[in-house]
Every structure is written in structure tokens, then in C-alpha cells.
Amino acid sequence: MTAKQAATVDRLGRAAVDVLSREGFSGLTIRMVAAEAGVGAATAYTYFSSKEHLVAEVFWRRLASTPVPPDDSPDPIERVVGVLRHIALLVADEPELAGAVTTALLGKDPDVEHLRFRIGREIHQRLTSALGAQGDSDIVESLEQLYAGALVRAGMGYASYTEIAARLEASARLLLT
């Protein structure tokens, strides 16, 4: 991707967040986002096939660009809690984006599939790293399922992402002790 293309994708991502905050996911369209970003709809569609694809990309970029704050704790439970809390709070202050991310990632859009895989791989790597030598594949998978279930609960409106972060912490501690 050229620098100009990357700048266009960045503008589209920022515009998507702005449009989501005003219109919600149901009102979001690629055309609206393109207009907000100052690009043609055809240009936007060359990068994103659907609004789900666009929202998933926004979340992926946010996750990938915000590494977990360093935690030098010798306790793997504290490190895991830090990872889960950090991920849960990535969109906590943006309820429309948070709900849109849940909808986009749980949908069947084929263009979201590779992003869902990348997001899952990143979360897996962060949890594995946090667990260190004490982690095994069953524990990591259980933590991943814990996070995925929390994402669904937050996306369905059962709790805010801040509340979900606290619930993830409590649940991870139960699982790991």
C-alpha cells in the first residue's frame, strides 16, 4: 500500500468513527463515510466491501497500534488481567463503535474473516505472552472464549465495556487460580 493509499484508509477509518457516533451502526453507510472522509464512494469501496469490513478494520488497527502497557509483574494472573482489561477498554468510551465492532466481527462477511483471524491471533499472542511458561493451550483457549463471550455480552448491551473489563478480570482470576 502506498503512503497515499494508507492515508486514504486512515481518513476512512476516522470518518467511520465520526459517522458511527452520529448515526449508529444501522445508519452507517460506506457512502456516508466516503463523503465524511472527502473521497469518492468508488474509492472507499476499493478498500472496503461493506460497513462490517470497514468497522472490523478500524478495530484491528486500533488493537494493533496500541500495545499492552508494560507489566513487569512476576504474577502471570496480573499480566493476563492487564491484557484482557486493555483489550476490553479499547472502545469503552465509544459505545456506537463498540457495538458496531461486535456486530461486524460476529457477522458472516467474507472480507471480515481475515481480520477476525488477525484480531484473534493478536489476542492469542498477547494472552500466551502474559501467561509465560505457565500457560498451556487449554488455558489460553479458555481465556479467549472468556473474552469472546464478554464481547458478545457488551455488544448486546448487557453491560458497558468498562463493566465488562471488571467482569473479565474477576472471571480470569477464577479461571487461573
UniProtKB/TrEMBL annotation:
Q: Which PROSITE patterns match?
A: HTH_TETR_1, HTH_TETR_2
- Give all residue intervals belonging to the HTH tetR-type domain: 6-66
A GO molecular function term, named singly, is: DNA-binding transcription factor activity
Q: Which organism is it from?
A: Mycolicibacterium helvum
The record's keywords, sorted A to Z, are:
DNA-binding, Transcription, Transcription regulation
Query: Coiled-coil intervals in this record?
Result: none
Q: Does the keyword Transport apply?
A: no
- UniProt DNA-binding region: 29-48
Name listed for the protein in its UniProt record: TetR family transcriptional regulator
Entry superkingdom: Bacteria
Taxonomy of origin reads: Bacteria, Bacillati, Actinomycetota, Actinomycetes, Mycobacteriales
Q: Which InterPro entries match?
A: DNA-bd_HTH_TetR-type_CS (IPR023772), Homeodomain-like_sf (IPR009057), HTH-type_TetR-like_transc_reg (IPR050109), HTH_TetR (IPR001647)
Transmembrane domains' residue ranges: none
